[in-house]
Amino acid sequence: QLHRAAQIASERKDGESPTLQSIARDRAHLRAKVEALMEAVSRVETAAASAPKRYPAFMVFFQRIFPIDALNMGIVNELLDPFFGEDPEVHRLIRESGPRLYVTPHLKAWLRHCDDWVEALPAYATYQIVPKDGGYEVSAWVQRSILEDMYRRHAEDWALNIEEVMATEHIALAREILAEAEGLDDRSERGLLEAFRGKERAVAAAAALVERVYREHPVEVAGIGEERGLGRMEALREFLSSLPEDHPVQRVRNGDDPAILARQEGLRARAEALLPLADLPRRGLPCIHVLTTLGPGESEVYVRNWLEEAMALFVVSREYGLEDKVAQRVGEYRTRIVSVGERLVRELELEGELYGLLSEADSREEAVLRLLASYPEVGEEATNLAILLDREGRDPEDASEPQAVLDHLRAHPELRIQALEEVARESGVPVEQVGKDSALSAEAEARALSKARREVLRELGLEGEVGGYMRTRLDPDMAKVVARREIIAEQGLAEQLHNPRFRYDATGPFKKYHLLYTPSRVDLGPEEVRSVREVPKWVGGIDQDAARSGRALYSLYNTAGPVAVDSPRWAEFLKVGENFFSRGGVFYLSLTAGANLDALGIGDFEFFRDQWNRRGDRIVLPGGETYGGFCVPKEFSLLYAIVIAAVRRETSKRMLRAFGVPEELHGRVIEDLRKLLGMRLDCPSELDWELRAASFLSERYPEYFRVLGGAGYVVRLPQLAEALHKAGVLFSRDEERRRGAFELAYWADKKAQGLEEVNRIGPFRKVLLIRELVEEARRRNPQVAPDHKLIGVMGAAYKEGARKDGREIRITDVRFSAGARKLEIYAGTYEHHLLKDTDPEGRELIRRLFRDFCPPADIR
Fold this sequence. Notes:
It is built from 38 helices and 13 strands. Helix 20 packs across helix 23 (438-459) and helix 21 packs across helix 23 (438-459).
């Protein structure tokens, strides 16, 4: 009407306007359509409002509980705001979900039953530059131990969750079979639940018969699923229909009493165990959501394997009645460490320190363990000794010196001579005097033994076990994982970990759960909730089913619409790439521009930034001091660590060790893994490859065990081959070309690493600028104190809170990396820490710039 206003005005001079009448009819037609659409929407809303519904339960787990956290747990469970703030979103959360919100100090109570396990533990990443002849080498480091502990620790609970899901699937199939026997027309799940209310014992008995079919035929069921693209339950339904007519399941289908058949088949106890679930609907596959920022491939290479190995260990150990032996072995680990600790207390004359801890501990044993934790050098010595005693198979209470160490000392008498000379030099006495003084002599012997132990560990290739030994032996949950490995190997049951009955995999023919990488893209501050809701959520499923499941969950609140891809690696690269390539690296260029302007002395960076941004087709980020202590600077290290691992030869040894492969077999196993990957190219399906791999490995195990001198822990080699392949360490074909691609990426990343170095020198620039300001102030006012008498005051907030709608929205996630770095610079301790972040040329430059630097009297 607006566009035809002139025509309408002209027509109306002679009366009615045909154009206006036509537009009015169109408008009325459109209005009727919209009203009809709104009526349809209203009907859908009415149906949704009247439909049966259940509320979800929201669980929050606090990891390392501090006293204030314990207080917060109580506050949240009382439906009060633990932050004492004014954030309306927190108040709304508590108000609307309060009856279904519970905070717990541990996971076990609910992890065995939940549908979605969302894990957001931190993974720390950094790097170090190591000068080499003619250049330098970058070593990126990622601390994954917190993540590994979490997934291994709770693998048993997750396995029980998976088993509950499978049980509900068997029960659902049992209801279908009973419905067929009774000739029921309504085969919907809701209809069947209503039809068999009060008949739960019959359902449980039939489910026990269905369950046994799967336990006896997992490969056949997996074959149907893979051939027809079906999930486990659907494939099992197909297999059940193909059973002979005299099979108990078919007899139930034909009307026989399932309770009688279950009793005849010896399944009465199993039917009783299934009874509590018999009136519940089928559950979908449970999902693990990894939110922690990881490098591309880490969810599949690490998280999946940590979890699946630990689940298989638990299931096999339980199946073969080994859990009592496991509990005994866990106790022996503790006994070994305490015995070694007691010996070191005597040898190192630490009775005084131990006495001081006894008043705080419940027992002497506990005090010894606290002493080992309080004195890292003593704890490391205890670890070295314990590992060597374990290897010799000593009784847990026997802490006498390992024979390998005594033999090494005899072969290397210079170790004792060096120890005597060191003690003599430090004590200021002749070497001869050390031998006559019992205390000095004992100290020299302890030093010689210590060095001999380290050398023996290195010769045996056991150095890699030192770091995590205490953690994996003293923590009861982690110790069970280690004990199950050892006992299953000792019992000759390692091959059972490949048994399809005990495979609880995230993808492939024996899929039992979904694995997803679903990174957070939250913006902290007043827009935090908006960003979670309105910034598109990335969902990386390990397969299409996992991606669909994740998209369905996040669509409940992410109004922008989740972007789902069927690869965690895609989502992992999206996350690290967004933070570095679109944020970190670009910001670092602004820092570089600032450094140039400082040198040229031609104005403020914000003026230039404003002018550059006025083009409108690009965004120049603000300058500043540094990005430090949170996601952006660590993302590139996560990516770089993946690429570095692919080009470093030691990566394969590290991963083999992580899978528990004995050091003596590393060379043989790597060659066999190459053959496994080659086989995969000729196999029509994953299941066919799994079966061919199992056949090949069954012929290789005797050779492995011959090298080891007995049964050993050599398991999950197909999964290890796949992990090494995804990590870029082993290739099934085109190895030279693929390796060249990784080497090119390594070279490019090494150059991009320079941008992060620019970021890391930001605090040094800031300190130099402050020094210039002080000098300028002193020129203007001679009364300004000299440098060595100055007292500095600085803040170190990461991101300030803000006001929204008149309320103060606090940010509790405060980091102070930049402030801590300036404090190190002022304290003069940066040489052995911060300078490792820069290349040799940068280190020398910073040393020169700070050559005459005088620290202030105090920094507050």
